[in-house]
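User: Fold this; tokens only.

Assistant: Input:
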Amino acid sequence: MRKAAWISLLLLMAAMLLLGEQKQMAPATRVAGAVSVIDGDTIAIRKRSIRILGIDAPELDQTCQDAAGQTWHCGADARHALAAHVARQQVSCHVAGQDRYGRDLARCATGGTDLAEWLVREGWAIPTGEESARYRAAGREAEASRTGIWAGSFMRSVDWRRAGDPQGREGAEDER
């Protein structure tokens, strides 16, 4: 009987350890701090990679065409615009989950401004995925004013990623 009690105790301790580790692995529901900007829709806060939910911005090395048909680096410009917007400000993100690459998917804001909505309204991103409905009006506004990527022509980032590599670039299916 003593052997059974020891086995039960060991199993209980193992279960407690496993539950403790699972709790640590779960993403925080809120992350805040100074940011570094990875690209037009991805930031990092305290070394956590955060993908802004509901939008898709041009990839960092993606190009677009202006109204005159000239090529410009819209992906780099989207990154620079976001970096200038959040410079020296605290950003607060509410994490909704993780994508298949381990990035946090989150709604982020600074100074009361929703970053996804700002990026779409400024023409640096398009609404996508399940969250896109909340940003459609801002997208129509950017398109009508021919701002950002809407100033000329562009390939949607998901299509650009697919076209860039027959095997599909990382995130090609990620409509975000």
